[in-house]
Design a protein that fits this description.
CATH class of the largest domain: Alpha Beta
Number of domains: 3
Low-confidence stretches: 1-7, 179-184
Oligomer: single chain
Number of helices: 15
CATH superfamily of the largest domain: HUPs
Largest sheet: 5 strands, parallel
Bound molecules: adenosine monophosphate, zinc ion
Length: 498
C-alpha cells in the first residue's frame, strides 16, 4: 500500500494508545513527526507458531495499519529468535532450539530455517504485512557481545554458568511488571549463585564438557547470548536508543520486557526504557487456559485450515475482540467468524456488480475518500473515532456491515468507504469472492466438482418431484461431510460440516 503523503499527516481523531509502562492511555506522538518506529518481539522458531502467537502479530499488524491509515510512515522491525530462548522465560530449562534439535536429530539451523519459512507463510495467509526488517538473532552475535561488554562492568557478574545482570544495580527494575498480577519472583526458577531471583543471563557459558551446536567466543568464554539481550541490541541498532513503540504478548510484560528495559537503561545510563510506548496484547485462551506451543493439539493456523476454515476467518475472529482482552478460541467461534466474512464478501460482491466507477479499487485513502458524500464520510469518521480509541476495532467492525446496507448511498460510495476501512482491517474485502472462502478440509473425501455434480442431479430430482432421490443424494453428501443448504440466506448451496 502506498503511504499517504506527508501533507495529510496526521488527521482525524487524535490517536490514543494504552501504555503498559505508565498503565494509562495517552495521546500518541511519535518522536519524529513523520515516522513511527516500532519493534515487535518475534517468534522463537523451534516449532510452528500457534494461534496465540499469531494473535500477537495480527495485533501489531493492526497497529501498523492504523498508523499508516492516519498518515504516518512506519518502520517496523520484527526479530526472529533462533538462539537463547530457554524453556522458561527466566533462566532455567534448555534452549528451545537445542531441545528441538535433540528431539528431531536435525541441525538447529535447519530447524530455524524451516520454522521461519512456516511463520512467514502463516503471516502471509493472514494478510499480516511484512515488517520493514526481519532481524535474525544469530546475525547479531557480535553486536550483542559489544553491547554486553559495555554494560558488564557496572551491572553484571560472572558465574560458572555465564554472565548475569544484577537487577539491584537499577532501582527502577521491574516497574513494567508492577502492572502484572501476582508475584513475579515465584515464577522464576533459582539458578545457583544468582544474587537475586530476577537476575538474568546476558551470556550463557557452554558447559565445559559439552559442545553446543550454537556457540560463539566471548570475553566470558564460549557460549551463547541470553534471550533478552537480542531485542535490546537489535531494536537499538535499527530504531535508535529511544523509539516509539515496542510490542509483545502480555507474558513479556513480566520478565522479558523488564529485562530489556534494564539492559537499555544500563546501556544508555538513563531512565529511558528504549520505547515511549510499551504495548501488550492479551492472550488467546482455550477452555483449558492459555494456548501454547508446548500444549499441542488444535493450535496452528494449518489445523484451522485443515478443518475447512479460511485463514482470514481467524483474522476476523481476532479483530472481533479488543487486543487487551482475553479471547477464547473455539472451533464454533472461528466458524461464526467465517460466516460473517462470507456475508461481508457477498455484500461487497453484490455492490461491485452495481458500481459505475472504479475509484473504489484504489488502495490509498486520499483517492478513496476525495469527494465522498457527507453521509459516507460520516461512517469513516465514526470508524476513525473507534480505532483511534486504543484500537477499538470491535466497535469499528460493525460499521462495515452498517454502511454496506445503507440503500440511500450509491454503491460506489459504499464501496469506497469499505475499501478505506479495509486498509485497516486487512480482510481483502474488495477482491475476495465467496468461493475463495471455501476451503476443502484435509480429510475431505469428495471434491468440489463431485459435489457440484451431485447437487445438479439433486436439482433434477427435485424438478421431477422425486423427493426420495433428492433425499438420498442429500444423505450421500452428508455421509461425505457436506451439508446441503437449501434456502440459505447467503445463497450458499453447500457447506463443509465443521
Ligand atoms: P514466542 O514465539 O513464544 O516467543 O512468542 C511470540 C509472541 O506470541 C510473543 O509476543 C508472545 O508474547 C505471544 N504469545 C504467546 N502466547 C500467546 C497467547 N496464548 N496469546 C497471545 N499471544 C501470545
Ligand atoms: Zn523480545
Amino acid at each position: 500500500m502506498p503511504m499517504s503523503d506527508q501533507s495529510t499527516l496526521p488527521s482525524g481523531a487524535p490517536l490514543v494508545l494504552f501504555n503498559s509502562y505508565t498503565r494509562e492511555a495517552a495521546p500518541f506522538q511519535p518522536i519524529d513527526p513523520a515516522m513511527v518506529r516500532m519493534y515487535s518481539c518475534g517468534p522463537t522458531v523451534y516449532s510452528y507458531a500457534h494461534l496465540g502467537n499469531l494473535r500477537a502479530y495480527i495485533f501489531t499488524d493492526t497497529l501498523r495499519r492504523v498508523m499508516e491509515w492516519k498518515g504516518y510512515h512506519v518502520t517496523h522491525v520484527i526479530n526472529i529468535t533462533d538462539v537463547g530462548h530457554l524453556t522458561s522465560d527466566a533462566d532455567s530449562g534448555d534452549d528451545k532450539m537445542e531441545a528441538a534439535a535433540k528431539k528431531t536429530g536435525q541441525s538447529i539451523w535447519d530447524i530455524a530455517a524451516y520454522y521461519t519459512d512456516a511463520f512467514k507463510r502463516d503471516i502471509y495467509r493472514l494478510h499480516i504485512k511484512d515488517p520493514s526488517k526481519w532481524s535474525v538473532a544469530t546475525d547479531h552475535i557480535a553486536d550483542m557481545v559489544d553491547y554486553a561488554e559495555k554494560i558488564a562492568p557496572e551491572h553484571c557478574y560472572q558465574l560458572d554458568t555465564g554472565l548475569y545482570f544484577d537487577v539491584a544495580t537499577l532501582p527502577e527494575y521491574g516497574k513494567l511488571a508492577g502492572a502484572a498480577e501476582g508475584p513475579v519472583e515465584s515464577r522464576i526458577d533459582p539458578v545457583d549463585g544468582k544474587r537475586h531471583p530476577q537476575d538474568f543471563a546476558i551470556w550463557r557459558a557452554s558447559p565445559k564438557d559439552e559442545q553446543r551446536q550454537m556457540e560463539w567466543d566471548s570475553p566470558w568464554g564460549k557460549g551463547a547470548p541470553g534471550w533478552h539481550l537480542e531485542c535490546s541490541v537489535m531494536s537499538m541498532k535499527y530504531l535508535g536508543e529511544q523509539f516509539d513503540i515496542h510490542t509483545g504478548g502480555i507474558d513479556h510484560r513480566e520478565i522479558h520486557h523488564c529485562n530489556e528495559i534494564a539492559q537499555n537503561q544500563a546501556f544508555t545510563h538513563s531512565h529511558h526504557t528504549g520505547a515511549n510506548w510499551w504495548m501488550h496484547n492479551n492472550f488467546l485462551v482455550d477452555r483449558d487456559g492459555k494456548m501454547s506451543k508446548s500444549k499441542g493439539g488444535f493450535s496452528t493456523l494449518q489445523s484451522v485450515i485443515d478443518r475447512g476454515i479460511h485463514p482470514l476467518a481467524y483474522r476476523l475472529f481476532c479483530l472481533s475482540a479488543h487486543y487487551r482482552s482475553e479471547l477464547e478460541f473455539s472451533g464454533e467461534n472461528v466458524a461464526a467468524a467465517l460466516t460473517r466474512l462470507k456475508r461481508l464478501a457477498m455484500s461487497v460482491a453484490a455492490l461491485r456488480d452495481r458500481a459505475e466507477g472504479t475509484v473504489w479499487q484504489a488502495d490509498d485513502r486520499a483517492t478513496l475518500e476525495t469527494g465522498l458524500s457527507a453521509q459516507a464520510a460520516d461512517f469513516l469518521s465514526r470508524f476513525d473515532s473507534a480505532i483511534a480509541d486504543d484500537l477499538m476495532v470491535p466497535r469499528a467492525l460493525p460499521l462495515v456491515e452498517e454502511v454496506l446496507g445503507v440503500k440511500k448511498l450509491a454503491p460506489d460510495d459504499r464501496l469506497r468507504v469499505v475499501a478505506s476501512m479495509d486498509l485497516v482491517l486487512g480482510l481483502g474485502l474488495m477482491t475476495i469472492n465467496r468461493v475463495d472462502l471455501r476451503v476443502a478440509p484435509a480429510n475431505a473425501t469428495i471434491t468440489d466438482a463431485e459435489i457440484a455434480a451431485i447437487l445438479d442431479q439433486r436439482k433434477q430430482a427435485r424438478a421431477n418431484k422425486d423427493y426420495a432421490e433428492s433425499d438420498r443424494l442429500r444423505d450421500e453428501l452428508a455421509a461425505k461431510g457436506v451439508d446441503v443448504m437449501d434456502g440459505d440466506p447467503l445463497g450458499w448451496d453447500w457447506a463443509v460440516q465443521l
